[in-house]
Amino acid sequence: MRISLNTSSKWYDRIWASLIFFTRLPWWRIYQPPRDSYRTVIEHWPLTGWITGGVTAAILYWGSMLFPFAITVIIAVAVRMLLTGAFHEDGLADFFDGFGGGGINRELILTIMKDSHIGTFGVIALIMYELLLIVSLYSMGPYYAAFAVLAADPYAKLITSQLPLILPYARAEEQSKSGVTYRQYGVWQGVSLALQGLIPIALFFIFSGVTAHWDRLIFAPCIVMYFLYYFIRKRIGGYTGDCCGAICLLTELAFYLAMLTIVL
After folding, report:
1. Residues 6 or more apart in contact with residue 206 via CB below 8 angstroms
2. Secondary structure of the chain in HEC code, one letter for each residue
3. Residue in 130, 162, 179, 183 with CA at minimum distance from that of residue 229
4. Which of 251, 54, 254, 219 is nearest to 146 (CA)?
5. What is the rounded distance in angstroms from the CA atom of residue 215 to the CA atom of residue 31?
6. pLDDT tens per residue across span 134-181
7. CB neighbours (10 Å) of residue 165?
8. Which of 35, 42, 163, 239 could form a disulfide with 182 if both were Cys (CB 3.0 to 4.6 A apart)?
9. What are 62-91's pLDDT values in tens digits?
């Protein structure tokens, strides 16, 4: 079931809804947007990455002046998970549990993904992801790691936000695990999304000093996104919130791995 493009919420309601939905900061104490706004949260998803990426980058850079960098990276990753309530990591675990345990059975995959219990595939996926993330950031050093997170966090969310445009929701709307299904956004919302995700990338290239092989950083996440899109389209014919969370983290990780091929 597709959500109507019509919404009575204002632009600032949509921003507040995104901040409340994608972070665990107490924004709701300041302002309560109408419920209809939560159907548009993906339209400002990269903007929330400015906050989570900014805080993580600040810890990576300035924290390294107080602690060994290995400890700083672990603290930074832990703080980001606290900021988001491990929302995307939960999606990653459910994604691998569903597709790992469900085989080619569409209904079984969706049932497993909706189950709140974590399975073997989910545990292994989380361990491998966190190890790759921590080692990647550590290998860059404080300077490049901070710049990379500032750029990659919003950029990965921008790429993943294309999913509701190219795939239908895989379940009936009322079966959504989070109680929210994303509407299909229009041209102006797409332009806004692009600016939210691309401005940090532009600033990254201007101030980080990374100019060689810039195409790797742009296209590596896109390639990962395409193969995951193709995979879930073939298996379940649509997307879920867990798919969005998993793709967001994996495309971001692709950015860091591509970054390592440049700075090392």
Report:
1. none
2. CCCCCCCCCCHHHHHHHHHHHHCCCCHHHCCCCCHHHHHHHHHHHHHHHHHHHHHHHHHHHHHCCCCCHHHHHHHHHHHHHHHHCCHHHHHHHHHHHHHHHCCCCHHHHHHHHHCCCCCHHHHHHHHHHHHHHHHHHHHHHHHHHHHHHHHHHHHHHHHHCCHHHHCCECCCHHHCCCCCCCCCCCHHHHHHHHHHHHHHHHHHHHHCCCCCCHHHHHHHHHHHHHHHHHHHHHHHCCECHHHHHHHHHHHHHHHHHHHHHHHC
3. 162
4. 54
5. 40
6. 999 999 999 999 999 999 999 999 999 999 999 999 987 666 666 667
7. 11
8. 42
9. 999 999 999 999 999 999 999 999 999 999
86's tokens:
């491990």
Query: Residue holding tokens 């399975």?
Result: 119
